[in-house]
Amino acid sequence: MIEGVVNAAYEPVVTIGLQGPSGQTSEIEAVIDTGFTGFLTVTPELVMELGLPLEGIGRATLADGSEVSFPSYDVAVLWEGQPRYVLADAADTTPLVGMRLLDRHNLSIDVEDGGRVVIQAKE
Amino acid sequence: MAAGADDKLAKEFHWYLDNQQEMVEKYNGRYIAIKGKEVLGSYDSEEAAITESWQRHEPGTVLIQHVSPGTGSYTTIVRSPMMIEKGERMRDVDAPAPKQSPRPTAPTRPMDEIARLGDEIYERDIRRQVEADHHGEYVAIDVDSGSWAVSDDLRAAAKRLRAQCPEAIDVWLLRVGYRALHHFGGRPLRRAE
Fold first, then answer.
1. Contact call for A85 and B155, based on CB within 8 A
2. Which residues 6+ apart lie within 8 Å of B123 measured at CB?
3. CA-CA distance, A8 to B144, in Å (whole number)?
4. Are the CB atoms for A42 and A18 separated by under 8 Å?
5. Where does residue A96 rank: exposed (0-12), middle (13-18), buried (19+ CB within 10 A)?
6. Would you tell me how many other CB atoms lie within 10 Å of the CB of residue B52?
7. What pLDDT does residue A5 have?
8. What pLDDT digit, counting tens, does each position of A2-30 carry?
9. In this model, does residue B57 exceed pLDDT 90?
10. Which residues, numbered 12 to 71 in chain B, qualify as contacts with chain A under a Cβ-Cβ cut-off of 8 Å?
């Protein structure tokens, strides 16, 4: 089970660990974004800090219908103590946890300032 | 999309393929070292297999193979002597990341150019081969060589391509039948083709 909190800006936030190819780790705060269909976004600074290898370039559609190309990086997400290897998209925003990372999990959010966020693996 | 073994180890690799069922029965999940038509040893880890077999044999003359049923491991575990000499090793799809990153963190071309080249190659060479049977799966294309790989998992497609084509840097990733890999905050009203 992963727990987080709804912050004052009404963002559901969780703390997750990331690991790069040389074993460096970093704990980040990420916003759960159910409108994002990818796994995870990370900042370019985090890509450099962890030395993440580039896997490729992909295309994403933004909320206004426009399209952007973005680089994807190989990263291990430390998820309840276990590494999960996913491709993270680099974006210069608060890191986002997308729906793919929540695949086969149950997400519950008490939507209020300070509300509880719980992510639980499905049985 | 199985990548061929390097010539020097092709014999070992083909011997493994011919005897895969027997190998799985004996060594499933383990790493074996093969030279000629002989299994030199089986090991819990890849590291152990490499360390042990290279102490006694010239690097590049022994094939380290992860034993598993199916075709999943063909593309990822065969190590060519060239790579061994360079001190690089390919990674299994689920294996931990290597100690040293062989790849840069930035592409060599502007991203828009990679997108354009990738789309061109896809339309010209790939679409007809994948559209019917791989809708919703992921394709990774090396825009320099035109090599590509397909998988139902995005990361696995990229790994598979790199197993075939370790030098690939500018790689275009796409989803079969979709305009974009991902959406942020909603998707266009028209069907995203």
1. yes
2. none
3. 48
4. yes
5. buried
6. 17
7. 98
8. 999 999 999 999 999 999 999 999 999 99
9. no
10. none
| Residue of chain B whose alpha carbon sits nearest to that of A38 | B182
Give pLDDT tens digits for B10-29: 778 788 888 888 888 888 88
pLDDT over 70 (residue A81): yes
Q: Does B176 reach chain A within 8 Å, measured CB to CB?
A: no
- DSSP 8-state code for residue B15: H
Distance CA B89, CA A62 (A): 37
Distance of CA B55 to the CA centre of its chain: 27
Q: Which residue is listed with tokens 């990263």? A: A75
CA separation for the pair B11, A7 (Å, rounded): 60
pLDDT recorded at residue B38: 87
Cβ–Cβ below 8 Å for A56 and B172: yes
What predicted TM-score, i.e. pTM, was given to this entire model? Answer: 0.66
E-strand stretches of B114-188: 138-142, 148-151, 171-175, 182-183
Taking CA–CA distances from A77, the nearest residue in chain B reads B96
Chain A nearest CA to B38, separation (Å) = 34
ipTM of the complex: 0.92
